[in-house]
Amino acid sequence: MKSGDIIIYACVIIGAGIGLMLGQALPGVLVGLGLGYLIKYAVSRDKEN
């Protein structure tokens, strides 16, 4: 498993947890997924330079 994938999975789980606390899990998962991809992109871009 790549480290970028772990970042995405962690963000999805955190987003789901926050969504469950607010009463809407699916939007939390989707926000976490989006943030995970953004963080993965930023981390991978930093490693290139």
TrEMBL record:
Swiss-Prot/TrEMBL keywords: Membrane, Transmembrane, Transmembrane helix
Spans traversing the lipid bilayer: 6-39
Top-level taxon of origin: Bacteria
Record protein name field: Molecular chaperone DnaJ
Organism: Paenibacillus residui
